[in-house]
Amino acid sequence: MDFKNITVAGSGVLGSQIAFQTAFKGFNVSVYDINDEVIAQAKERISKLKQRYLEDLQATEEEVDQAYNRLSFHSNLADAVTNADLVIEAIPEVVQIKVDFYEKLAKVAPAETIFATNSSTLLPSQFAEATGRPERFLALHFANEIWKNNTAEIMKHPGTNTDVFDKVISFAKAIGMVALPLHKEQPGYILNSLLVPLLDAAQMLLVKEVADPETIDKTWMVGTGAPLGPFAILDVVGIKTAYNITQAKAEKTGDPAFKKLAELLKTEYIDKGKLGRETGEGFYTYPNPSFISPDFLK
Ligand code: NAD
């Protein structure tokens, strides 16, 4: 492995997970965020992850403590990247915030440092110029709860150097991810390019009153052997997120079906506190949703 020192910029939901997972796999990790107050929150957020590693991965106390001790925390960007082989950016999904960040980073990072964005919906080519090193820049996209949902989609933009691409693929494997290389830019990467149309299609069947969620899920599960149907997946994603995406599509396309779906999600689910798996109810009720019963597929 060529990398030793990794900087994670942004210590929110994903940044804290990326930082801890990377340290857990033995790398030195600098965590950067905008001020000392947010850094104090980052320490707390990351400390809480220890428990998840103990429970979900049967890690030992010693392992999680050692991982935590490989982290250093910074609110000064130059200090955070002094020895960085790789900077992973996980700051808000706002173009201007990211552009400003890359322009600042370009000035203080060593010339050989590779930059990667964890952006879910933006493309690396949108920031390539701002990085000042387009050939050493690409996307490295993780999933929420990285220690369990261990995909890493590694996506080139047209200017990314092949050697840089290969190094980041090796790094993703070294931190326990299943590395999924994308040789061309693709909005939504591979996973969401597959998942979003499936979830949209399922919700359209519901809003057109063709079938109920259980029947739609059952069809998918029996027909393809998949362990979850689209509505069970939507419960994991969260109904609020599904609503926000649908609402944005309704506004963008003016399609009345999306508008009707957004209304349905709001009145029948969100307003009734059915936000998905997290709140114990969404399309199904948890912890024992009907689809886990063997009879469901009969
Ligand atoms: P978040 O809002 O939880 O965290 C963002 C962090 O960035 C905060 O700690 C904030 O203080 C910090 N920040 C704000 N401005 C900054 C700046 N100029 N420099 C450095 N740090 C700054 O966001 P998140 O959900 O962790 O998402 C971060 C990125 O990861 C986004 O690009 C998002 O698309 C991507 N992502 C999120 C998820 C997810 O499930 N949440 C999954 C995959 C990818």
Main sheet: strands, sense, barrel? 8 strands, mixed
Distance between the termini: 50 Å
Q: Which structural class do the helices and strands define?
A: alpha/beta
Radius of gyration: 21 Å
User: Which series of helices and strands comes N to C?
Assistant: EHEHHEHEHEHEEHEHHHHH
Key structural traits:
single chain; 298 residues; alpha/beta; N-(1-d-carboxylethyl)-l-norvaline Dehydrogenase, domain 2; 8-stranded mixed beta sheet; 12 helices; 13% strand; binds nicotinamide-adenine-dinucleotide
Structure in words:
This protein has 298 residues and is α/β, with parallel strands linked by helices. It folds into two domains: 178 residues, Rossmann fold (3-Layer(aba) Sandwich); 100 residues, Orthogonal Bundle (N-(1-d-carboxylethyl)-l-norvaline Dehydrogenase, domain 2), CATH 1.10.1040.10. The chain has twelve helices and eight strands. The protein has an eight-stranded mixed sheet with strand order 3-2-1-4-5-6-7-8. β1, α1 and β2 form a beta-alpha-beta unit. The chain is globular and about 60 Å long. It starts with a strand and ends in a 29-residue tail after the last helix. The model has no long low-confidence stretch (mean pLDDT 97). The site of nicotinamide-adenine-dinucleotide (NAD) has 22 residues, from α1, α5 and β6.
